[in-house]
Amino acid sequence: MLHGRADLHCHTTASDGTFTPEQLVQEAARRGLAAIAVTDHDSVDGVEASLDAGDSLGVTVVGGVEISTDVDDGEIHVLGYFVDVHHEPFLKLLYEQRESRLRRVELMLEKLARLGVNLEISDVLAVAEPGASVGRPHVASAMIRGGYVTSWDEAFSRYIGRRAPAYVPRSKLTPHEAVQAILEAGGVPVMAHPGLVNNDHMIPSLVESGLKGIEVVYPDHSPAQQRHYQALARQYGLVATGGSDCHGPRSKSGVMLGTSTVDVSVVEELRRQAVQ
């Protein structure tokens, strides 16, 4: 039986994190974490390298993903744990999501040009790892490199945040479709940081679709929110998960690995759900 703490929401350079998969596991070992989950945006490309590093360093690594979905009044992110990273239909969905992200970035660049921010797609790709799932954080980094803004916060607030003039909505994938896709890939779907999205009314229908967990412990969840989502987890029989949403050093949030953790026994709860 494993003992210790687990951070079950982490990103690498396979999407918009700044740790490579190997560096993420090294940092987990340095911080004394028993387990982490690699949950890159719309990508599982960092999973196998993380698993190998975990084997070498004695850190349990859960292969996962974070899928961005849209609802009428915002967005919901769905985490998937223990997904089959070789499941072809799932990989096709993630590829389509990444292509949609790239097209979204191109449309943002068109809007930015009309605002006097002249960047090429090559400028954005230059600040991302090869094959990474490209998104707004990479646009922000390119804007900083080009001297148009001084920080990610400025880039988002002035230009590419949800209510800013160069914002472009994503392609429409519903959270229910994401839940189903994760299940079909043998994974365990979990609603990410529900306190940020204010869509509790969707939880019952997501549970009906196969949702298995809810992220209770999260850096931006207040103690009251943690109690609220812990109670909902009990009410619906969901696994209560948690993690830091660490994107590594030089990231917008600055949240450090291990900032928010759960007991490593949660990994076993998720594993049991995956094999049911």
Short descriptors:
alpha/beta, 276 residues, eight-stranded mixed sheet, 10 helices
Can you offer a commentary on this structure?
The protein has 276 residues and is an alpha/beta fold. It is 41% helix and 16% strand. The chain contains ten helices and eight strands. The protein has helices spanning 21-30, 47-57, 88-114, 121-125, 136-145, 152-160, 175-184, 203-209, 223-236, 265-274; strands spanning 5-10, 35-38, 60-71, 74-81, 188-191, 213-217, 239-242, 262-263. It has an eight-stranded mixed sheet with strand order 7-6-5-4-3-2-1-8. Strand 5, helix 8 and strand 6 form a beta-alpha-beta unit. Helix 1 (21-30) packs parallel to helix 2 and helix 5 (136-145) packs across helix 6 (152-160). The longest helix is centred in the middle third of the chain and has 27 residues, at 88-114. It starts with a strand and ends with a helix. The model has no long low-confidence stretch (mean pLDDT 93).
Describe the SSE topology.
Layout (H helix, E strand, L loop, with lengths): L4 E6 L10 H10 L4 E4 L8 H11 L2 E12 L2 E8 L6 H27 L6 H5 L10 H10 L6 H9 L14 H10 L3 E4 L11 H7 L3 E5 L5 H14 L2 E4 L19 E2 L1 H10 L2
Parallel strand pairs: 1-2, 2-3, 5-6, 6-7
Antiparallel strand pairs: 1-8, 3-4, 4-5
Helix pairs in contact: 1-2, 5-6
